[in-house]
């Protein structure tokens, strides 16, 4: 398996694997994460350093992205979607993608990354409740699912977090 930054030519494969990973009961219905990704790739808050693919030989089998949101005027990364092609799940691909985006964040001196996700999955990557760190979600019902991984506590902005614009119709 290889890991590298996503390039434009990967995007069709990224949409396909994201569709498969998030598919509901009817596989013909496009999950909202696919449209979200299309908008994220085209928004101002997209940063190619934080869009990473996993490949098996030449096929793209996994993808993770973080885009710039903001807290009180200061930039903070928001992670998601993360997706691994169903036939490649449970082999550590998701974990490797998470490790890679964290390594990149540390290399680029990012203070933290927030996400909305399952605590049972993301705790293992060092995420904890964001509100305990003073980062407030726009929707209180997110509760413990709104999480942060802190890289530099002193530089972490505190206040209400707003995701990149494409998220905002539902976040
Ligand atoms: C979540 C996802 C990215 C994990 O990718 P993966 O390559 O299978 O992850 P890993 O192999 O590194 O880790 C697998 C472990 O994660 C855990 N896990 C996966 N999804 C989980 C969830 N929703 N809640 C809790 N734990 C979860 C399981 O313990 C699993 O262990 P197992 O293989 O013993 O069952 C993948 O399952 C996926 O694409 N799911 C659909 C899309 C999605 O839910 N994305 C995350 C939200 S943005």
From TrEMBL:
Q: Which Gene3D superfamilies match?
A: 3.40.630.30
One GO molecular-function annotation for this sequence?
acyltransferase activity
User: Acyltransferase: present as a keyword of the record?
Assistant: yes
EC numbers: 2.3.-.-
Q: Where is the N-acetyltransferase domain?
A: 1-148
Query: Which InterPro entries does the UniProt entry name for this protein?
Result: Acyl_CoA_acyltransferase (IPR016181), GNAT_dom (IPR000182)
Listed A to Z, the keywords are: Acyltransferase, Transferase
Which protein are we looking at?
GNAT-family acetyltransferase
Q: Give the organism the record lists.
A: Glutamicibacter arilaitensis (strain DSM 16368 / CIP 108037 / IAM 15318 / JCM 13566 / NCIMB 14258 / Re117)
